[in-house]
Specification:
237 residues; Thiamine_Salvage_TenA; hydrolase; Haem_Oase-like_multi-hlx; globular; 0% strand; mainly alpha; Heme Oxygenase, Chain A; Thiaminase-2/PQQC; thiaminase activity
Length: 237
């Protein structure tokens, strides 16, 4: 079991009130609370989440991370300097590595082979989220792309830390909890927040407003993704 990450590592209170990150978190605090307390995460923390629901989630999350890594790669291509290029290129690689290690472990445990995964389509919420991120990464400027990517980092870290604080040691989903409550992920979140605040600091009022819209939309899609996993959402036709 990992050690918990201190709350101040990436909490909104750790950043200037004028920073984009602090403003975005405050504007979307109600949405975050809805995500934190939704049935999927409450049952995940209790260790009572149905296995079928978690399997649905982990398969869709593996699909999602492929799209997320593509969006990160496009952020790297649009980055204004080499340091940010390296940051996002590495983040894109890490997203795939996580999929192959964390998800791969669960796939082995649950008997999900490569063919089964490949034959499972993206669920409506997953498809919506991936399509939104890729469209934003293609069409929007660097600053707005970061606004859309930040919620996945930050909300997962906050949820991981929150669940860690109340999950029992023998929780069957402990590997997931430890990954997102751990120091390595917290460091990646802090770097993402710093890059987004840096981008926002030099943005025009119009671009900054679009960053806020992107952040809010991605936050809503985070909710839909977890809710879809809980409902085992699939295409009706």
């Amino acid at each position: 079991m990992t050690d918990p990450v201190p709350a101040e590592t990436f909490s909104a209170q750790a950043f200037s009130a004028q920073a984009f990150s602090a403003q975005a978190w405050a504007r979307n605090a109600e949405a975050y609370e809805a995500i934190r307390t939704m049935p999927f995460n409450a049952e995940l923390a209790a260790g009572s989440l149905a296995r079928a629901r978690f399997i649905h989630y982990i398969v869709q999350d593996a699909h999602y991370l492929v799209g997320f890594s593509r969006a990160l790669a496009m952020a790297a291509a649009k980055a204004p300097n080499p340091d940010r290029m390296v940051q996002f290129a590495r983040a894109a690689e890490t997203a795939i590595v996580v999929e192959r290690s964390l998800h791969g472990g669960f796939f082995r445990d649950y008997g999900i082979d490569a063919a089964t995964f490949a034959d499972t389509p993206l669920s409506p919420p997953c498809d919506h989220y991936v399509s939104y991120l890729l469209a934003t990464a293609y069409a929007e400027p660097y600053e707005v792309v970061l606004g859309a990517l930040l919620p996945c980092f930050w909300i997962y870290a906050e949820i991981g830390r929150d669940i860690f604080s109340r999950a029992r040691a023998d929780n069957p989903y402990r590997a997931w909890i430890d990954t997102y409550a751990g120091e390595d992920f917290a460091q990646a979140v802090a770097e993402m927040i710093a890059a987004t605040d840096e981008a926002a600091a030099g943005a025009s009022p119009d671009v900054r407003a679009r960053m806020h819209n992107a952040y809010a939309q991605a936050t809503r899609l985070e909710y839909l993704f977890w809710d879809g996993a809980y409902r085992e959402a699939c295409w009706p036709v």
